[in-house]
Amino acid sequence: MIGSGEVTSIRSPRVKAVRQLARRSSRQRTRLFLAEGPQAVREALAWGQDAAPQDSDGARGVVTELFVTAEVRSRHDELTARAAAQGVPVLVVSGQVMAELAQTITPQGLLAVCRFIDVPLERLTAASPRLVVLLANVRDPGNAGTVLRTADAAGADGVVFSDASVDPYNSKCVRASAGSLFHLAVVAGSPLRQAAAALRGAGLQILAAEGGAVRELDELESDGVLGRPTAWLFGNEAWGLPADLLAAADQAVAVPIYGRAESLNLAAAAAVCLYASARARRG
Amino acid sequence: MIGSGEVTSIRSPRVKAVRQLARRSSRQRTRLFLAEGPQAVREALAWGQDAAPQDSDGARGVVTELFVTAEVRSRHDELTARAAAQGVPVLVVSGQVMAELAQTITPQGLLAVCRFIDVPLERLTAASPRLVVLLANVRDPGNAGTVLRTADAAGADGVVFSDASVDPYNSKCVRASAGSLFHLAVVAGSPLRQAAAALRGAGLQILAAEGGAVRELDELESDGVLGRPTAWLFGNEAWGLPADLLAAADQAVAVPIYGRAESLNLAAAAAVCLYASARARRG
Prior knowledge:
Largest interface: A-B, 40 and 39 residues
Helix content of chain A: 25-40%
Oligomer: homodimer
Distance between the termini of chain A: 52 Å
Number of domains of chain A: 2
Order of helices and strands of chain A: EHHEHEHHEHEHEHEHEHEEHEHEH
């Protein structure tokens, strides 16, 4: 249903359908998710614009609908124009409807319904990746989204969300990724051990970040180990990594703790590890 | 009022007084804050136990009251015993009362009322610090708490919260710090420019983390600049640092972005910068 219009009732079937995308089960069923705010919407509209058309109805992007308040439309007319140029229906909604649709307490007045963009693991491994993140049982969507953003910044090729990890399309994860969800190859719901095996099969060493490990990150950096193609394995915020996975990794690596903190937050540890790899690759 | 007891009514004046500590104004007036969960309570009870008595009534710790559910008391009797040994009243509360007191959706059944522990800036500068964080207008309590935790892990001596930054005693900040609030010298509410001047007066170079800076972190690392005593200046999540502060810093430094992310999350950028300093100091 291409075209633009105005939606003012929170009882509109369209509003109801979009609201349901807050639930993972609805996202899984429809293979649609929400991207909120100008930054995410900009990245969503830019996605795949240099690629071939993906869709039989001619739409080549990932955005299927764009909701915007009148006020924000005037501030971001470049985005609504770009959406219209892609054949994306732009729906002007009242502030009340936007508040109903948005997952945030202070909605930014702009919300895109997007198609899933994750890729099969084989597509990532076939692309000769040099830096990959494998999230094992990571449950906090803010942490996962921050890791996505940091992985993007560090020049990683992809992020694999194992099947027991948070959904990458969770609204908090999308928001914390600050657009990076649209930049990297994201693999969703891979069985963890199979993913680790496939990444190793593609020539990547598996480095497991583990606070209690004997080997410290700085040693690996001096030894030249970090310059090799690497998949960093990060575990759950509270429980760490399962023993069998740790044992199967090429190395378990600790970020050194110089002060009295027990450990680092997952996203902080990932930042230190991924930037160590980025430096080693370029150094 | 030393002693232990049982509180079962959410209308108890004690419960009401503690609930008010969720508000910054009440914290400021009473100079008390809340630490939730076993880890934070353990650190709070350990605080200052090697120092001289601080208080005319003989209590030398920071905890003034400990609330615990019956269930959690049996699981953490070492903590309630330690509290009792310090003369801290231990109050057994129902799950309903704990839910009323706690700032979290899933309360951990253990909550300490603590005295403020921040120190004047002069105490931090007098201690010849080598690594300090100065938070300028940082508003997100989760980010601020994560930076505290990371600063602790990287061996920093203190964290200064400028007057326009979030309150370090905000419950989300306390929680994200994972006990590190009790490990470092925390300075609260310093006027930003005076704090920067005082830190420089104490012999620290001011390095301003700024995504758009021309000099990159890796250059400074190679040049040996990072080995010097340093105060890292981190700005607001959205707006960055004020121009005059940037101009007054010894260097503005960018964490390099290798991929397509626009920037790093504040806590991730701080992790990369602080660990670069920690490495340089020890390298």
